[in-house]
Amino acid sequence: MSKTAVEKIFSEKSGTDSRAGDYVVANIDYVMANDITAPIAIDAFNDLGMSAKSDKIIIIPDHFIPPKDINSAKQYKKSKDFALDNGTWFYDIGSGGVCHQVMMEKGFAAPGRLIAGADSHTNTYGALSAISTGIGSTEAGVIFATGKMWFKIPETIKINLKGKPSKGVEGKDIILYILSIIKNGGAAYKCMEFSGDIKYIDINERMTMANMTTEAGAKCSFFDTDEKTIEYLKQRNTGEYKIVKSDDNADFEQTIEINMAEIEPSVAVPNSPDNVRHVSEIHERIDQAYIGSCTNGRIEDIRKAASILKGRKVDRRVRLMVVPASQEVYNQALREGLINTIVESGGYFSGTTCGACLGGYMGVLGPDEVCISSTNRNFIGRMGDKTSKVYLANPSIVAASAILGRIGTPEEI
Amino acid sequence: MMEEISGRAIILGDNVDTDQIIPAKYLNTSEPDKLAPHFMENEYPDLAGSIQKGDIIVAGKNFGSGSSREHAVITIKGLGISCIIAESFARIFFRNAINTGIPVIEAKVSANSLEKITVDFRNSRIFCGGKEVEFKEYPEFLKNIIESNGLINYVRSGKW
After folding, report:
1. Of chain A's two ends, which shows fewer C-beta atoms within 10 Å, N or C?
2. How confident is the model at residue B149 (pLDDT cuts 50, 70, 90)?
3. Reported pTM
4. C-alpha A102: how far from its chain's center?
5. Largest CA distance in chain A
6. To the nearest whole percent, how much of chain B has pLDDT over 90?
7. ipTM of the predicted structure?
8. In terms of DSSP bridges, do strands B125-128 and B131-134 run parallel, antiparallel, or are they unpaired?
9. CA-CA distance, B78 to B55, in Å (whole number)?
10. Do A64 and B27 touch (CB under 8 A)?
11. According to the model, what pLDDT value does residue B1 have?
12. Contact A188 B96 (CB under 8 A)
């Protein structure tokens, strides 16, 4: 019988012949938690009184790192002590970064794997053909102890990408376009599978798209494996992996055809990521421009921003913040002189952290402030005061807007 | 599992996300008593203070969307909410609720604010304002977790 990729992977990991809708207990290849979610997971783990499956566990502090206050420091320390005491994988500030970026870079994400992460944007690893899904802390704690978790196998929405994206259209614009069709919650409990002309989409763009399937409510995402996937994996220490593909006649819940040539540079306006407009419709003045996060804080994003900022100045009423998604990204930006370009333009370049993406600290918005951001959510009060507003866009638009002092495109500079 | 509960309806809308339920600035703790007073404070600053133990949340579509933060469920438990009824739930929130033992029910219920609601779990029925709404029973697998009073107890029982 034909199956979708997600049905094949869950069947293998649970040792069953299962289909969408079935409940299974599956073996997890890796489980990840951060400084916000790990402390609660550690309590659950301790409640079970079992030993840790140390080789499966990855702890990556990122949300409030470096610690912003005493409570954050306690959470960080609890996570770190657990990792060191149990001999798990651990990526601290200075070697790690935003958890999902680190999971990709360090080779944990690879085709055919089943990965659970105590963070909603764990969907990101679908960019490398893994089934990865966000879970809660109690569940993470159970996986720490048992290496297993219960799942309902999701149905698959197949997204058939056709054509070549126009110049200036990035992965962010493609996923915003798809979100405007599927809507917030429209893919709830489902897998969003991307196939077709994915050869036109680089791995970093795929990560942005897979990352924001979470905003459609998807349980996971899945990109077909191709030469770009294999090339990326060759540069990482991934170990063994298995390429899995949906059968052509598999039972898809629905198939959506997307003509990538029709997609234009976009912004998601407050207060939902599916509230998408053409960038030319929005001219709002901004107070902050933010480039970073697991969505768009990669080296390619920082290169794009630097190429726009080079030799120009950030508008005097705008605070530009560039936050690399990992130490590896930071080091590469340093080598390429990108940090120089950004700080000479008047931008602030920080160490790696989730920072203001979730209104944590460092770039939090005050009353009525407006931010254009390369991050993934623009909910009410997400980045600070409840009257502040966040617009989501690709990093090139964010950099151009920082110079213009209002939302605009690189062509307008 | 409990057989029947009654409580006052706390009415919320569609797409209530985890940033609304508990804003990120409070995520530097996971203590229920510290989280509970900040429930929905950006939208409804006085709501948390008015909630009584046993109240039932009645919401629209996609309740709990956004973050995986278990703090959202801890906040709601900290308030003493006895049950959450929504037209649909975001996936991770639903799992977190099941796994930590707070009843969540997918059903469309129209209730007035603070109106009395009764949930009959045994017969999968909700009673409100003289009307009766039937809801779908949990699948067997989830029933086992709920009847164990959460995932930790279920794992301890060695059933998997």
Report:
1. N
2. confident
3. 0.96
4. 11
5. 62
6. 87
7. 0.92
8. antiparallel
9. 12
10. yes
11. 58
12. no
